[in-house]
Amino acid sequence: MIPLSEVKVGQKVQVQNMDVDEPVNQRLLAFGLTPGAEVRVVHVAPLGDPIAISFCSQKVMIRRTDAARVMVEEM
């Protein structure tokens, strides 16, 4: 498993575990980012933060520090 923050642009992964702070966890869960979800990294900002991810037919921006706490597996 690797953190979501280390996934390259265009790569598809599957969420395995989320260890994020409560407010962030609630926001991501509300968007549908749950263990088992398929995620694709769409864009990384020029300075590396934030990261744009796509899942469940939507795009969401996530801070690199929060993405580092979402563990994923390559598909």
Q: In terms of per-residue confidence, which ranges show pLDDT below 50 for 5 or more consecutive residues?
A: none
- Tell me the overall shape: globular
The oligomeric state is single chain
Please state the CA-atom Rg, rounded to the nearest Å.
11 Å
CATH architecture: Roll
Helix-strand topology string: EEHEEEHE
Structural class: alpha+beta
The average pLDDT value, as a whole number, equals 90
Q: Which features characterize this protein?
A:
six-stranded antiparallel sheet, alpha+beta, globular
Helix/strand layout:
Layout: E1 2-3, E2 12-18, H1 22-31, E3 38-44, E4 51-55, E5 58-62, H2 64-67, E6 70-74
Antiparallel strand pairs: 1-6, 2-3, 2-6, 3-4, 4-5
What does this structure look like?
- With 75 residues, this protein is an alpha+beta fold.
- The protein has a single domain (2-74), classed as Ferrous iron transport protein A (FeoA) (SH3 type barrels), CATH 2.30.30.90.
- Helix content is 19%, strand content 41%.
- The protein has 2 helices and 6 strands.
- The chain has helices at residues 22-31, 64-67; strands at residues 2-3, 12-18, 38-44, 51-55, 58-62, 70-74.
- Strands 1-6-2-3-4-5 form a 6-stranded antiparallel sheet.
- A hairpin with a 2-residue loop joins strand 4 (51-55) and strand 5.
- The longest helix is centred in the middle third of the chain and has 10 residues, at 22-31.
- The relative contact order is 0.35.
- The model has no long low-confidence stretch (mean pLDDT 90).
